[in-house]
Amino acid sequence: MGIPYTLELIPINENGKYMYNPDVLKVMCRIGAELGADAIKTVYAEPPEKFIDVIETSRVPIIIAGGEKMSSTTDFIKTIWEAIKAGASGTAIDKNVWQSSNPRFVTSTIWKIIHNKIDLNNALEILGV
Prior knowledge:
CATH class: Alpha Beta
Largest sheet: 4 strands, parallel
Order of helices and strands: EHEHEHEHHH
Number of helices: 6
Distance between the termini: 46 Å
Shape: globular
Radius of gyration: 15 Å
CATH architecture: Alpha-Beta Barrel
CATH superfamily: Aldolase class I
Helix content: 40-55%
CATH topology: TIM Barrel
């Protein structure tokens, strides 16, 4: 039918909190790919070296979910930059953009990280950090 099949796979613990465990993500994303997903939306888990394994194991594009609200825009942009550098294909983010002090600059910075592959220092400079 030509309709993309995207799975949102967000691991949570028994308390309903997000789990940022790359080993859990690796298994979940691989299963999602084997179930026929064309792309998978999930959280980013550090360290970047382990997240590369998540990307390589999944065999389909990984889109980074926004996750929980981060304490600073700088930390948020660093996380996006690390995820894209590790091989994530894009982002699907809400509250970390819309609840920032300047959603326009945050959106522009994310776009430049993904499409122009700017380095982290340039990304933070755009934000005035």
